[in-house]
Amino acid sequence: MEKNIKLTDESEIKVGLVGNPGSPTIMLPVAKESVYGQEAENLKVWGVDPESGKHFVEGLMDKFQILYFDYEGHRLQHPNPENLTPESIVKDLLTIANEMNIEKFSYYGYSWLALVGLQLAIRTDRLESLIMGGFPPIDGPYKEMMVVTNQTYEQVLSNQHSSVSDEQNLINPEKVDWDNIQVKIDTNQTKQFVTMYENLMEFDDRGIQHKLMIPRLAFAGEKDTINYGENFGNVTVDIIGILQKNKQELEHLGWDIEILNGNDMDHTKAMQPVTVLSLIKPWLVKNLNITR
């Protein structure tokens, strides 16, 4: 079943629901639309699965009911520059669950959609489990991401009247000069993430851990460290370093922590379905007491 659902900003998002209605529901806001042709080939060069959403859904629907949509893609098409706050995002997710008649559900998100899952977990009692990929549950790099996002926004503002585009250089990741690349995307697309991180500057991710009484898993690739150049504020977003440093504390707090090993297991590789499904599917089966 697919349905268009109106969100808090009046934009409409396409949402799907498949699988056995008698099984636990997994909310997948990471279910990107499939792309084909040259665009798909370009993504493959970067190690990105051009049909990742489809593969996530197909990989889980034999054991679970899957509530799937592409929230990031929706927000890039329908930016919410002034109001993409944690509160409004959570309202969007709960609106989707309500419209699809789903009361209880588990949540899997990656990168910024992982931090969204943490915000969801402290604002509702409807979650049955939480999986955060590529973003640590404590000591999250909110300030670093604020710097990167702000710098990106400043670049977009200064480049919006420029005819120069580095898009053609993004075809080959080995040739990308991250120190000098120019960003040319819509200003509102970037501004909405500035708004989101601004609203997370005072967020105390340690102070909310006592509210989390559900099964929860956090994971990252062992090479998930991004060093941003001068154009992006000279900051390092060290996802794996933070997760490794706090692994013992997180496990004591009740988190399951997994480090995905491999010399190429960076932020992009660790989000691909072939990698993620082998980790999260058995974890969900175990923690949601699936017997068949």
UniProtKB/TrEMBL annotation:
Family matches, as InterPro entries: AB_hydrolase_fold
GO MF terms held by the record: hydrolase activity
Entry keyword annotation includes Hydrolase: yes
Record keywords, A-Z: Hydrolase
Superkingdom, natural source: Bacteria
Stated name of the protein: Alpha/beta hydrolase
Source organism: Bacillus haynesii
